[in-house]
Design a protein that fits this description.
- It contains nine helices and no strands.
- By secondary structure, the protein is mainly alpha-helical.
- The N and C termini lie far apart (about 160 Å).
Length: about 240
């Protein structure tokens, strides 16, 4: 008897499954298809992203080679294309590299404009680097007040770029003729154990240079006195 009940139970269960399949089978198939297509699409996207990054890396290295060979105009053009077509990470780095190449080629105006546009975005290490480079590119041509405004976001005591900013501001004092103030700031930087070693070395050299008087002129060199023409030699003591 148990076998009969078991068979009846199986038949009832089968009928229920068939009924459910007739009602919802299309939806189940569609759902499975969506999952399969989604997984396939994600895998394709991952592959696409990998190919894009690989292509951008190759192009970036080629542009760096151009820059290393001092073909700055060619490098700037290559970096500029990457900044427009590469994935976001490479695009951002390429934009900064484009500005570097333009500045190296003597195209200061375009380079500074790019530096400032990157700096204006804020919130990233690239923006801070661009701000530093924009400051160095303009420190000899604009008032110190403009350099102070540009570097203001980096001068906080917790900002890792504060030492680089202070070095530029000290140099701005030097360029403006405020030699005493510049010497003081360079001396403070040279003595700051938290500052990078290379920056401390530069600051120490500048402080010593300014302490010795900087590039002031110290009097004039006396003019050479005219010498009397040499007398012709006499033969045998006779004129």
């Amino acid at each position: 008897m148990s076998d009969i009940f078991h068979e009846v139970e199986e038949d009832v269960r089968r009928e229920r499954y068939e009924k459910l399949w007739k009602q919802y089978g299309d939806y189940i198939i569609a759902g499975v298809a969506v999952i399969v297509i989604g997984v396939a699409g994600y895998k394709f996207y991952q592959r696409y992203e990998y190919d894009q990054r690989l292509s951008a890396s190759t192009a970036f290295n080629a542009a760096q080679t151009e820059a290393g060979a001092r073909n700055t105009a060619g490098a700037a053009s290559a970096f500029g294309k990457l900044a427009k077509t590469a994935p976001s990470g490479y695009a951002a780095i390429s934009k900064l590299a484009e500005a570097d190449a333009l500045y190296a080629s003597g195209n200061d105006a375009d380079a500074i404009a790019i530096y400032k546009s990157i700096a204006a975005q804020g919130g990233s290490a690239l923006a801070d680097v661009a701000r530093i480079r924009a400051a160095w590119a303009t420190v000899e041509s604009v008032p110190k007040s403009q350099i102070e405004t540009l570097l203001a976001p980096l001068t906080d005591q917790t900002n890792p770029w504060r030492f680089a900013a202070r070095e530029i501001l000290a140099y701005a004092d030097y360029r403006a003729g405020a030699l005493g103030q510049a010497e003081t700031e360079f001396s403070l930087l040279a003595a700051d154990s938290n500052a990078p070693q290379s920056l401390r070395g530069r600051s120490r050299a500048m402080a010593s240079f300014l302490k010795a008087g900087g590039d002031k002129e110290y009097g004039t060199v006396p003019p050479l006195q005219p010498q009397a023409p040499a007398q012709p030699a006499r033969a045998n003591g006779k004129p």
